Amino acid sequence: MLEKLLKELHEFVEERLWHVHHHPKNLVGALLVEITELAEHFIPETPISKEELLCEIGDVNNILLLTKDNLQVSIPENTPPSNLFITSQVLDLIRKAGLLYDHFLWMTDEESRSYQPVEEVSALYAPVYRAFITLTATLGIDPIAAGFQKLSLHRKKYPKELIAGNLNAYYERKKAWRKNPPESFS
């Protein structure tokens, strides 16, 4: 299932000509943004539906997988269970993603585009992935299934015929979608 999702994610990106924007600094920055959006839902008294949570988990999962391929790192094995409260797990995930982002923070876009894999980045990526998988296990959510659901939504939200190579169309669709979100993302 993981390989099928990765293949579909890459096809989605290529069909919309977004691959030119997918270099390490941009992807890791997007990952940090998605993780903080997920974290917003764990603020006390912030209501969240299961569908909204699945949507956020799907975003983080898909960016994590695209980042993995872009950085040319492996998915770590053996994710230990956590005894932390959910909020602590979310904060731990943010902290670890921040450490990964720090590696790319001062790179220019050109330096990021010419990135060569290094062992240090693999050592920074692995804890982020493990923290995410631990969190989803605690929540009882299958991140791959959430990733497929989110990809399905993105196909509707960003049809390749309208979006391919047109950054303005992307931002207009994103703005319109936020004003009038669908009832369900499935």
- What is the helix fraction of residues, given as a range? 55-70%
Overall structural domain count = 1
How far apart, in Å, are the first and last alpha carbons?
Answer: 18 Å
In what range is the share of β-strand residues? Answer: under 5%
- How many strands, which pairing sense, and closed or not: the largest β-sheet? none
Quaternary state reads single chain
Structural class: mainly alpha
User: What integer value in Å does the Rg equal?
Assistant: 16 Å
Number of strands: 0
- Stretches with pLDDT under 50, minimum 5 residues: none
How would you describe this structure in keywords?
186 residues; mainly alpha
Describe the structure.
This protein is an all-alpha fold and 186 residues long. The chain has one domain. Helix content is 70%, strand content 0%. It has helices at 2-15, 24-40, 50-71, 86-104, 109-113, 119-139, 143-157, 160-163, 167-179. The protein is globular and about 45 Å long.
Question: How is the secondary structure organized here?
Answer:
Blueprint: H1 2-15, H2 24-40, H3 50-71, H4 86-104, H5 109-113, H6 119-139, H7 143-157, H8 160-163, H9 167-179
